[in-house]
Structure formats: C-alpha cells, structure tokens
Amino acid sequence: xxxxxxxxxxxxxxxxxxxxxxxxxxxxxxxxxxxxxxxxxxxxxxxxxxxxxxxxxxxxxxxxxxxxxxxxxxxxxxxxxxxxxxxxxxxxxxxxxxxxxxxxxxxxxxxxxxxxxxxxxxxxxxxxxxxxxxxxxxxxxxxxxxxxxxxxxxxxxxxxxxxxxxxxxxxxxxxxxxxxxxxxxxxxxxx
Length: 191
Fold this sequence. Notes:
The chain is mainly β. It has one helix spanning 24-32; strands at residues 8-10, 18-23, 36-40, 43-46, 52-57, 63-68, 73-78, 83-88, 94-99, 121-126, 129-134, 141-145, 152-154, 159-163, 170-174, 181-182. The strands form 5 sheets. The protein has a 4-stranded antiparallel beta sheet, with no helix packed on it. A hairpin with a 5-residue loop joins strand 8 (83-88) and strand 9 (94-99). It is globular, with a radius of gyration of 18 Å.
C-alpha cells in the first residue's frame, strides 16, 4: 500500500512480525546506482536494505493491509491478533491497537480507500458482511450482507461503493448501514 505522500510503500504478510516500510526515493536511487542483489528471469532484484525507510516493530502477528489518515497515521489490519494497529508514519512506532473481535483481513483494495473521508472509520469485509469499526475502538458495526466482498471506496457523499459479490456489479451502501443499491449492471451475456 502507498502512503498519501507517495514516499512510503508499506507491505505485510499473514505471518510477519513487522511491517516493512520502503522509501520511493530510495527505490529511485537504488535503481540509478544499480544496487541489485541478483536477477530473476532477466529482472533485477533490488537490495532490500537499500530501499528501506524502516520497519514498524510489534504491530501484532499477521499485518496485512493498510489505510492512511490525513494526520500522518497508518492503520494496519492484523489478521492473527484480530486488531487494527495504528502507527505513525513519522517515527514508525505503534501508537495503539484497536481490538476487532474477529479475524480482520482486508481493509483496503486497489479499487479505492476504505477509510472514511473524516479518517474516523475503517470499512472491511468479514463474515459475509461489509462492516466498519472506529479507529478509536469500540464495537464493530455491520453495514450490509455480502456474498464475496471485493473492495470498495468510501465517498464524501456518505456512501461506500463496493463490489458485494463475485458478479462484478457495484453497489452503493449508506455509511450508517442499510440496503445496498446497485449502481452498475451487467449486459446480457456478461458474467
């Protein structure tokens, strides 16, 4: 995931114990200076240490996906520990962990941001539902049922547009919850 400034590229993995934070400017420098470890199928592999901004230590076991607010913080879903870890982009230190009371997983997707425009809520899919949780903690709020949620984006208009099933149809869901309204449809013969 890429932080809003474009400088930090943040990774993770279900069995990781740290969150690696890479620097875009260090990537550019490493490429210019040809700091490669090896080549795989003719593609140069950049030296890991040459592009690191640092690592967030002790975020919890299983950091997966990241969202960012406008205050210099990141929120990482921590799969195995069932929390959202809030950490600072400035010093890469964990500020707090917000319990999720279930196995949190995908809180972001390439399709768009799943943090509320005011930066106070994270939306995610779990247990065949689209849900949200306050970045300050508290109860999880069910927004609507899903078959197989596949990403979405939280708009300024108070709606989340998301793919709630594997059909590819996008639906609008009120940020407070409710019945989804389809905003796209498939033509005859389309999957």
